[in-house]
Amino acid sequence: MNYKIIAVLLIALGAAARLFPHPANVAPIAAIALFGGMYLPKRYAVIAPLIALVASDFIIGFYSWPILLTVYGSFVLTALIGLWIRRRRTFTRVLGGAVFGSILFFLTTNAAVWAFGAMYPHTIGGLLESYTMAIPFFRNSLLGDLFYVGILVGSMEFLLRRSQLQRVEHSRMN
Q1: Kindly report the CA angle at 28 between 23 and 33, in degrees rounded to 5?
Q2: Which of 116, 113, 105, 14 is nearest to 60 (CA)?
Q3: I want to staple 37 with a disulfide (CB 3.0 to 4.6 A). Which of 62, 79, 91, 97 is the partner?
Q4: Cα–Cα distances in Å, from 49 out to 44, 88, 122?
Q5: Minimal CA–CA distance to 109: which of 152, 143, 138, 142?
């Protein structure tokens, strides 16, 4: 399998999905990070979602660097979750990785908005308000991540199983 082509397709998907109209926080970047960790060579696993982010941010626009770096960092951590799942792929672990990645994104990015932004007072109450106001976005992130992880991982597992069956059938014929 040509992983460079897969990485380029994932980057294109990630960048395009952020540029076209979509519900808030429903984008495939976290799924690409998790998928990359699970299936791509390690050097591509982390950089594929980051290249998609940078490419689309050139068009969308960059924003507060501390918040932006937190967003990017959350996707690096999600790719690392995928690397952990790589050798232990089960439905439950993939589902758990997707959910954990969504929670990680929610907790880190909203803490960054609170810490580095001016929307909320820099108190515990302000942090809690930041999390409370972001719950609808979390729901969208979680649903989008589950959808895109299902599509990406499901497609890859289908292709891997199909190629295994073809090899088995080919070896039986010989």
Answers
A1: 150
A2: 14
A3: 79
A4: 9, 22, 31
A5: 138
Place of tokens 């729901």: 139
Q: Which long-range contacts (CB under 8 A, 24 or more apart) does 90-95 make?
A: 94/34, 94/38, 94/149, 94/153, 95/146
Are 102 and 111 in contact, with CB atoms under 8 Å apart?
no
Q: Which residues of 16-48 are buried (b: 16+ CB within 10 A; e: fewer)?
A: ebbeeeeeebbbbbbbbbbbbbbbbeeebbbbb
pTM for the complete prediction? Answer: 0.90
Taking only the tens place, the pLDDT of each residue in 7-52 is 999 999 999 999 998 888 899 999 999 999 999 998 889 999 999 9
